[in-house]
Amino acid sequence: MFTIDLILKYTPLPLSVQRKTEEDAHAVYEQVQTAMQTGSPAVLELTCEQQPDKKVCIVTQELCAVQISQKSGGSATGKQPGFFAALAESSS
What we know:
Elements lengths: L1 E7 L6 E5 L2 H17 L4 E5 L7 E5 L3 E8 L14 H6 L2
């Protein structure tokens, strides 16, 4: 399972959606990246494959970062992948 994390301005926690395949995850990443590059305000709606009822709608002008990470079944370290993992480790 691949997780796409979206970081919004002035929001401390990421919004996330999941995709089952790497190709689908990269397609969502490219969609978000293109929306960020256009610069004109638009609304982007994403759905989640892990939780089919989960939907997120974002004003693209508020996006400041996007990240893909893979959830591996054997990794039970208690650390979350993402932008804030490095901050948590450096403050410890």
